[in-house]
Fold this protein.
Amino acid sequence: MKLTLKIWRQKNATTKGELKTYPIDGVEGDMSFLEMLDVLNEGLINKGEEPVVFDHDCREGICGSCSLQINGEPHGPDRLVTTCQLHMRMFNDGDTIVIEPFRAKAFPVIKDLVVDRSAFDRIQQAGGYISVNTSGNTVDANTIPVNKHDADESFNAATCIGCGACVAACKNASAMLFTSAKVSQFALLPQGRIEATERVLNMVAQMDKEGFGNCSNTGACEIECPKGISLENIARMNREYLSASLKG
């Protein structure tokens, strides 16, 4: 395939960026989107030009670092996949593809397509932990009965990889889906009830402090989430937050 790429280039967080056009040829349908960018960068390097900077790590849909806005959609036109799992067969010969970084005040651009998502780390650090003793005196997990439905829901919430697609998809750049997933994975289990009150209050407060917007109630976050995190987690977090507020 021959494609035209319009890619956001920005030297650093303080400089003004712009879309630059790059033609690319020889793209195969079985290539992943990141492999296509690798081919582009190889050509740029061979011509003595600066390659496009983009974030990636595992390339297996696990780490969540390959966050790109592709033709206006987080992770591109496919569903339940990350950018590294998006294949070029989703596009047609002659297509123009616009590639941008995730847009959010709380995700400042570092360079080109790379944004700083450490705000997510700080939300997690604010309450995403439990006080279970893991120093050698642990209790067999099977001695604590857990309802299977709760265990399944907790596992589903825990599949969140923190990529930020929910923020990029939301017109208010809300991090409610991410934060609620991190709250839910603990709130649904007995081991997580010890810090339940402190956890939800602290994590929501940190989310607001980072500059994320309010939930837009449009559901775009769930649609664009590569792991299909459910909006039910937001409802659960709201209940947890109300309960915690009344206690304290």
Summary: The CA atoms of residues 105 and 211 lie 7 Å apart. The mean pLDDT is 95. The radius of gyration is 20 Å. Residues 3-111 form a domain with the Ubiquitin-like (UB roll) fold (CATH 3.10.20.30).
